[in-house]
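Ops channel
N.P.: pipeline sanity check, posting one input/output pair.
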């Protein structure tokens, strides 16, 4: 059992709320563990590292998992098993948020498995568990014996009426123009994830700067915890390339690699690189036996230095572009005849095929998680098959990359999606990456905008996205920023900074870095340069499709939306759904009624069927008044008394025999028969029913 005498509790002010950290009481066998409380939100975070490096690894095997426990919000999981299963998309996205700021701070050459697990145990809807989990991961790593160059801090920043706020409540989030997840050290920014409602560059940079001030306080708090309760960092034998081998490879292979990279054609460059690497490996096979991995790694770092030097010193990129130049763009729309909307966006060797499908509002995605249950009307999904990079890889279910990129594109487009009142449709957009050489997520944003416009969705403004890169000299601090990075620049560079937005402003940002943070000036320069690239790309998109299609596809449902008195919903539905099912059968439509009385009627082909259904629904929901005229059907006859006419589903009245004609009528059958279609007028509404007058037999 844990030695409670050694347990420690630390508290601090976290943006106006009390943050409490408990150490030494829970999960004592982990390398590092902490329980973090903020209000009623409680997150447990652990970190463990394997004793030995994993054999055959050529990258750092860090694994981060964020667990959503349904008991945290007093829910029992759905499904037959009644237990948590596969991680939700939300949990995967939070795992990525935790991973990205901590990963660059591990020492190079570490190949031991490191596993971080953050478990949300109790959640207050007004205190988001995401930044708490991120802070917890920083604390767990800081107090552990695992080498790590933290600490890091994390916050969420909102903006209401031009005023920035830290960790907004649910109500504040609804009013906020920015939702920014931010992480960094006391000196630099490490991770940015943001959605925004067309905010300016200055507003976004202001939010980042504001959030970083709170992060500095968090980092100072964690430093104090580590000083008092942290374990000594273990001595580790880190992988490195032997100096003599590295020098020998550089002397022999440098000119060969310069030659390999001296072409702007990607395929030729890759063929030359393969040839150069083969020659180098063969040359050193006998000199350094059993050192093939080290030789390959040396080749990689030499290649990296050559590419970075050309970019840094000469401003020449691997494909011959200048630093601010965007790759060639071509696009098309309406490429798939049976699809409601479609477009292909191509930038260089990156190509996205995006489709748009429209449906009824009841086809919206229902989200189950720690947040309040909600429906997602706009759904964006991203697929990255192996063939897009030329790999012979079988198709698989979406992984963290696909879910993350899909969420980013969705976040970029949500601010321009019309409201339910303006456009009463559920909208699903799917981006299939056909070819990838960098910045496929931003190609997805561009292609999705065009597919939505092709489908006739009245978006508020077109959205384009651009990925920015960075090369920074660690010694001098000098840097260059590149617009629209391709795969090699992402692989060998220091930053992947994605910015999406309209002509008016930013709608989404995501930043991943490989170095230990970037300055606010770098961030400011990158955002400003991204705006130039974004506007250029937007211009190319609008050349292809200058405006939203003025009509929907023949194959898309036609939906009309209107409201009725919510108290009349029961009348429209009828006992066991008999009334509404009859309307659906008669008109061939699909009808959806919301609790607030919103009625959506959909049909395929001629919209006249939807209007017929609307008339019927309105007639049922309408409280009859004297003078109202209806077309109805004779449903019952009392020969000497009168005829009963159903003037609306579930509503009928009687036409007295004296009101069938101006002339005397001996029996009703002389004028009407059951099933006759008639036009009637309400002349009296009494306790015993509705009295009608026959106007016309149709």
């Amino acid at each position: 059992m844990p030695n409670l005498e050694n347990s420690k509790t630390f508290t601090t002010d976290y943006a106006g709320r009390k943050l409490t950290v408990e150490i030494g009481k829970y999960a004592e066998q982990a390398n590092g563990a902490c329980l973090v409380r903020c209000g009623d939100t409680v997150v447990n975070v652990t970190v463990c590292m394997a004793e030995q490096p994993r054999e055959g690894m050529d990258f750092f095997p860090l694994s981060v998992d964020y667990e959503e426990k349904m008991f945290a919000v007093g829910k029992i999981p759905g499904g037959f098993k009644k237990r948590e299963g596969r991680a939700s998309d939300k949990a995967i996205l939070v795992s990525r948020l935790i991973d990205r700021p901590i990963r660059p701070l591990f020492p190079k050459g570490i190949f031991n498995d490191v596993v971080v697990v953050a478990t949300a145990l109790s959640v207050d809807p007004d205190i988001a568990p995401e930044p708490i989990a991120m802070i917890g991961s920083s604390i767990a790593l800081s107090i552990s014996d695992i080498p790590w160059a933290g600490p890091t801090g994390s916050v969420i920043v909102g903006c209401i009426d031009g005023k920035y706020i830290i960790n907004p409540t649910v109500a504040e989030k609804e009013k906020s123009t920015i939702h920014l997840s931010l992480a960094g050290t006391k000196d630099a920014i490490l991770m940015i994830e943001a959605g925004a409602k067309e905010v300016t560059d200055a507003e976004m940079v202001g939010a980042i700067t504001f959030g970083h001030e709170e992060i500095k306080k968090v980092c100072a708090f964690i430093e104090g915890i580590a000083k008092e309760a942290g374990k000594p960092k273990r001595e580790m034998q880190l992988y490195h390339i032997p100096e003599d081998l590295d020098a020998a490879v550089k002397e022999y292979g440098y000119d060969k690699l310069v030659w390999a990279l001296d072409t702007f054609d990607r395929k030729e460059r890759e063929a030359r690189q393969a040839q150069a690497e083969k020659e180098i490996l063969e040359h050193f096979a006998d000199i350094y036996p059993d050192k093939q991995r080290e030789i390959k790694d040396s080749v990689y770092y030499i290649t990296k230095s050559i590419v970075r030097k050309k970019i840094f010193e000469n401003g020449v990129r691997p494909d011959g572009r200048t630093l601010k130049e965007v790759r060639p763009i071509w696009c098309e729309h309406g490429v798939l005849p049976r699809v409601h909307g479609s477009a292909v966006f191509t930038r260089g060797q990156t190509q996205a095929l995006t489709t748009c499908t429209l449906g009824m509002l009841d086809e919206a995605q229902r989200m189950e998680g720690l947040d309040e249950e909600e429906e997602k009307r706009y759904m964006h999904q991203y697929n990255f098959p192996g063939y897009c990079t030329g790999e012979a890889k079988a198709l698989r279910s979406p992984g963290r990359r696909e879910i993350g990129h899909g969420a980013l594109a969705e976040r970029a487009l949500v601010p321009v999606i019309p409201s339910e009142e303006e456009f009463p449709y559920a909208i699903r957009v799917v981006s299939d990456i056909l070819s990838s050489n960098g910045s496929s997520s931003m190609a997805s944003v561009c292609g999705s905008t065009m597919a939505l416009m092709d489908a006739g969705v009245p978006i508020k403004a077109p959205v384009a996205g651009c990925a920015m890169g960075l090369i920074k000299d660690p010694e001098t601090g000098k840097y260059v920023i590149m617009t629209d990075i391709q795969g090699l620049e992402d692989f060998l560079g220091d930053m992947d900074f994605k910015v999406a937005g309209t002509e008016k402003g930013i709608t989404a940002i995501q930043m991943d870095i490989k170095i230990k943070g970037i300055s606010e000036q770098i961030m400011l320069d990158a955002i400003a340069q991204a705006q130039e690239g974004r506007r250029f790309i937007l211009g190319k998109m609008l050349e292809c499709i200058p405006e939203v299609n003025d009509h929907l596809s023949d194959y898309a449902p036609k939906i009309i939306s209107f409201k009725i008195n919510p108290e009349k919903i029961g009348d429209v539905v009828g006992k066991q759904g008999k009334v509404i099912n009859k309307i659906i059968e008669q008109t061939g439509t699909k009808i959806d009624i919301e609790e607030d009385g919103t009625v959506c009627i959909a049909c395929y082909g001629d919209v006249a069927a939807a209007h017929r259904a609307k008339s019927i629904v309105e007639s049922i929901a309408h409280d009859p008044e004297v003078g109202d005229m209806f077309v109805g059907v004779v449903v019952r006859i009392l020969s000497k008394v009168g005829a009963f006419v159903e003037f609306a589903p579930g509503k009928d009245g009687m036409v007295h025999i004296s009101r069938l004609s101006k002339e005397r009528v001996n029996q009703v059958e002389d004028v009407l028969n059951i099933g006759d279609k008639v036009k009637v007028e309400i002349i009296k509404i009494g306790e015993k029913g509705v009295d009608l007058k026959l106007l016309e037999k149709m």
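N.P.: looks fine end to end. The mean pLDDT is 91.
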